[in-house]
Design a protein that fits this description.
about 500 residues, alpha+beta, Beta Polymerase, domain 2, 3 domains, 6-stranded mixed β-sheet, two-stranded antiparallel ribbon, 26 helices, about 50% helix
Amino acid sequence: MKPNVFSSFFNFFNTIKPIIQAIKQAGGIPYLVGGCVRDLVIGRELKDFDIEVHKLSLEQLETILKKFGPVMLVGKKFGVLRIAGLDADWSLPRKDSKGRKPTVAIDPAMSIGEACRRRDVTMNAMALDLGYVVEHESELEKNVTTHIIDPYGGLDDIHNKRLRAVDQTLFLEDPLRFFRVMQFIGRFEMIPDQALNNLCASMDLKDATTNAPLARERIYEEIKKLLLKSRRPSLGFRWLVDIKRLQELFPELYTLIGVTQATEYHPEGDVFEHTMQTLDATAQLPYYVDQPTMPAAEEKYIITLAALCHDLGKPATTDQNLHAHGHEQAGVTPAKKLLKRLTNDQSVIKAVLKLVAHHMLPANFLEQQAGAKAYKRMALKLVPDVTLRQLALVALADKQGRNPHGQEPLIEQHHEMYKKFLQHAEEAMVAHGPEAPLLLGRHLLDVVSPGPAMGKMLKEAYRIQIEEGIRDIEVLKQKAQEYSDGMAKGKK
């Protein structure tokens, strides 16, 4: 176990030790289960702690937990409780029927082996007896993973970077598991075994009881995990190609396969290969930052989606000379179709579409040695959805996604292009948003009352500010008045 993961686990364990002891004294057996056990083995940062308590009823568990703080019934019918201020889910073993709204039967007497059997893949079907940890803490501090309960070979599968279904019949009961496999492939860079590939190649992706399509929101969350938590999210989409389901699920991406590009600019291969490399480049960019209106994770998500969609216009625009003039604008329509199948979040859709429509601009601006006015105009076009800096991130990844010698993007290259474009945008004072208008309504109150006329004057003053680079408020006011007077004369 890595030292930071080791300390993370035992720091958390020490906070819950009194609760574990109380559960043991009541006759319960508390197990750490699921993804946190997997992350413990892999050596990844531990964030979500899932504790499954056997041999107690829900009422008994709730009574114990209430001794340590207010209990939130976040999923009482599923047997899930939380203590306020403690980042852990406390649950009971259960059996679920098929479908999106399963009938849940809590079974405190279920064995840990049977409870693990209901997990999706073997790396998630492991457990750690926390009561045992209490009694053997000093011993486990040396190597906690040697005491992990592993009834289905999850440890070996992690070592061999292999994904296997725990129980093939149970796996098919929840079609969301298909998309979980997709994001596991990208996040953990593990390969499904042939049996799991066969399952996923043929499994029905509709609700097992209602036959309705999977809820868009559920798929969206899995795709979001793939894009945000993977070093190489392309592996999930490449897997869809391997099992022949890309056309069904992402037809816009499927059309990129076999679309040839000029090797002078794209030595990596067809548009699909370029898109996959560009996607992986965005996943590894070091420039994401928290914004006043957008956290870094959300920024990364928008940029990765834009990378996925940025060249969707090439199939329709690539000519016999392998030119794809206008593919940026042509890509907006297929990008919108793809995005609307994933989400109804209009802020995400609008941001991605603007990045798609203008992703060639940073390279063009640098090549044409565009002046400050051009940067200011473009910042206005992007507002309020994205910024020039974010557009430059997509352009950087686009350049990096051109490795002719493998599928990894050229993540060490082209940073100077990004920095140079950003420098010009910052010199124009519009890297993070458009230039603020200098002339405001209060400056015009002595010449015009608030209303449409004032609005037109302010709009004209802002245009002059951008186009002519004027930053003197009095000069802008004079020009706005001249514009207003000219409009009035024109109407007479």
